[in-house]
Amino acid sequence: GMLVDNAIVVTDGVLVRMQRGEAAAPAAAAVVKATAWPLLGGTVVGILAFSAIGLSPTDMGEYAGSLFWVILYSMMLSWLFAITLTPLFCVALLRVEAKPAGAADGRVLRAYRGLLQATLAHRRASGMVLAGLLAVGVVAFGFVPPGFMPDSARPQFVVDLYLPQGTGIETTAEVVAQAGRRVRAREGVTHVTSFVGQGALRFMLTYSPEDPNPAYGQLLVDVEHFGQIAGLIAGLQQELEQQFPNADIKAWKFMLGRGGGKKIEAAFRGPDPRVLRRLAEEAKGIMAADPEALAIQDDWRQQVPVVKPRFSVDAAQRAGVLPTEIAAALERNFSGQQIGVYREGEELIPIVARAPAHEREGVEDLRNVQVFSQLAGRFVPVEQFLEQLETRWEDAIIRRENRFPVIKAQCDPPPGMLAAPLFERLRPQIEAITLPPGYVLEWHGEHKASTEANAGLAAAAPYGFAAMVLAVILMFNALRQAAVIWLTVPLAVVGVAVGLLLFPAPFELMAILGFLSLTGMLIKNAIVLVDQ
Fold first, then answer.
1. pTM, full prediction
2. Each residue of 427-440: pLDDT tens digit?
3. Is 84 helix (H, G, I), strand (E, B) or coil?
4. CA–CA distance, 381 with 364 (Å, rounded to integer)
5. Looking at the predicted structure, is the pLDDT value of residue 102 above 80?
6. Which one of 12, 65, 251, 396 is separated from 210 by 20 to 30 angstroms, measured CA to CA?
7. 3-class state of residue 193 by DSSP
């Protein structure tokens, strides 16, 4: 639409002049002479409308910033072609019969002329109507739900399976295989790729793979058509949750923006992991009380049982054994110790030595581990230095940001629904949680990403709009014409609000881009009209 606008103005101008009886070549030359600079000014203003995207300092500017340069190149070329090739084609191809003087105008033009004359005849009433419409548009805009990024039209979706932390990778693989068979049996599914222990490699920009974790599995599901995804996700989410009650299931679509993480994340920051876990459990309890909150979890996952052996340092010293030697013997027995490297072509494969499987199946096998005593000149059992075996629960994962432990209580809205309504219900309840001194609550997820993206646009937009205003003022060398042109821009809010409410859609990044392009088109058309 933006690219053909310049050519439309030139072609229409030539057509009108030819209908008045002018020859094609003189008409084309006159139109180009009259409209070339107004069209250039309007094109520049239309390009500057997207400068907020290109100049945004956030990662969303990095993601969508190339759009500004594409608009820049293509719009300038459209202006160049409009004043060169378009008049040439008009002269070569247009065949128009000249209208006799006083010929009646068409029905549309007569209706428009009547409306225009009536509006100008009642200027004050017309101004009041427009101001009222603007006020209604601003109020209606408050009912438009916010958003971040729309879903991608890629015929593919993802199912994440989080088993209890500490689950062996063999068990995870078995559960993922069972879930894969159920997903593959669904109508419309063409292929299922499974990943165990970590996510897929980053095969697209908007996909962020999950960190390696033996208790995590992922299904990458291909479908025949994008339109089938919404129904499949809704059905699979419920079916898999019932089939695998011990697993946290999340079925989700790709987005046209950065991926990874949950849509709603309450992040607690503080020094003590135990206090952070308590705060996260309170937040998850609030989420669980809302029937629309799905896939509730935290990013530290569950605690795992850890066996802590306590050794007698005195007994070890009498036997000539150091604590580091005991630790190395335990590691060699249970985890394994690298003793060499096997080279296969360009690949180096580590050679690991550890005890057979039947000697490292349980905690009781710890007593049979042998450690070499320099004093005795032989291997001695670790059991003779052992005082106590203590089993306690510990965090297997502690995530930090800026060196401070941070835990995120996470959830998602139902498939196909916006996160904003659920977030607005949960936010006041979670913010009411009493935080001890030194602990803070931050909102991550879609809210943080959207806030950062909008902040980046807000930081860059004043420069672009200032350049647009200056361009219009310099073009006419006056303020009155610039005021006439810019006074039309706020009225775009009326149509935008009505459109987004009529076809329920959030005001997300793509809608912002549409609003910017609409602003550029409005100003560009107004420049041409005022100049004429």
1. 0.71
2. 999 999 999 999 99
3. coil
4. 13
5. no
6. 65
7. strand
